[in-house]
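Tutorial handout. Part one gives the primary structure; part two gives the three-dimensional structure as tokens.
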Amino acid sequence: MIIKERKIPLSILKLQALLRRLPPAPPKIPFIMSELSKKEAGYRGECAIDFPLSFLETKEYFIFHDIRLQDQTRFFQIDTLLLSRKFILIIEVKNIAGSLYFDSTFNQLIRTKDGKEMGFPDPLNQIERHESQLKSWLMKHGLTEPPIYSLVVISNPQTIIRANPENRNLHYKVIHRDTLPFKIHQIEKSINQPSLSDKELKKIIKIINKHHTEADASVLERFNLSMEDFIKGVICEKCLMSPLLRQRREWRCSRCEHESKDGHIRALKDYYFLLGPTITNRQLREFLSISSSASATRILRSMNLVSEGMNKGKVYRVPFEYEKEADSN
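Part two.
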């Protein structure tokens, strides 16, 4: 049973909104596109294990995707966390093409592709650290600790996995995605008795759900940008012209003559991901590139937004909850 569904990471949605709102020339765009490409590849890799996991018995296994917890002072994020009455399994997914060499001498992962070598942090160190952090987290919350296992899952079936000769036990920790359900069944069979009662298992599930915290770092701070760097206004969904003109409660493109009644809603989604969940009349006018305060008020009222304050101090809450937005993509 999937307890926490997989969804498009907030970091990806923020980067996509940022690219929509930046002019094509700024020097930072290649860095933003590179970061987005890496995150999208990672997300595709995580999605690639959904099919193998679908072969598991839904009543026996409880799955959290993309869970983020805090141990003492640090947060740790796990791609997929699988719980059963016998054990907990941490799954770290790597979507890396080419030939992978796990160097246990220097604790590094070396990728060879198209004749070029590139080094990566050793994911085995990462899952060992996550095991330790999860144990501390369970102890901190007074929860029963079942055996904790961890796996590095290579999502690309064409990736070749290699190791130095003395690292003979690598196959216990690093597997291809298609062998994941078989590996889980092996772990299950190796344990004779359940470590958790149904009540204890439900308690762990409930507290994980309660303490999961979404990462919500500012993408503007990440690239040292501000609202002044953005393309303002409603962007035409047909030809990408901006800003569209507001005429008779519709948005009209002067280039291709496309008309839209809800173009401001798409624009406010960008605002939400880039600038946050609250907006004032003045901020709306600036972002949508309109001059009329009355027109801005009509737009805000038409969306039935929750608001606080009065007159010029009135603040509206932009209604695009991340979970709803992620599910709609």
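Part three, for discussion. The first strand starts at residue 2 and ends at 4. Confidence is low (pLDDT under 50) at residues 323-329.
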